Amino acid sequence: MASESSASVASSRRGFLRLGRRSVEPAQRPPWALDEARFVDRCTRCERCIEACPTQILIRMDGGFPGVDFSRGECTFCGDCVRSCEPQALFRQPLDAPPWSLVAAIGADCLAARGVECRVCGEACPEGAIRFRPQRGGVARPQLDEAACTGCGACIGPCPTRAIAMQADNNIPTEREP
Fold it and tell me: Which domain holds residue 135?
């Protein structure tokens, strides 16, 4: 009993000393964001990029920094957020630089993987990067063409089971020097 009590006290002390900090995944930053350390250093949290976003997928996240919420819609890569960013935390040079190194990933919660007909993600994808291949004795399953996926996120919001997420594609270079 005493060891349980001392373990509880020790863990609460650790929690107190951490001051409520917890490890979290970094937020998905707006397109053409500098690497996380430089982005956080330069971003003034003015929210101009959030206000400039025509699809309203940029939102205020932890610490007041902007991030992307693909459940709200897709990124059209219009560049309005970059043009509104005076401290250049978002920087697009050269002009053909990829916005980020993201591609869609279809998870196990996909309805088609459970034998339920659903093609919502493929219908929502403006690039045609998600196609459905017939399966013998079952429903067609989605297949992602990573080379065609722009990481726009159009497939995420409509997915009824939230089976789609964005993941880093390490084959896409994203180094930016403002």
Answer: 101-172
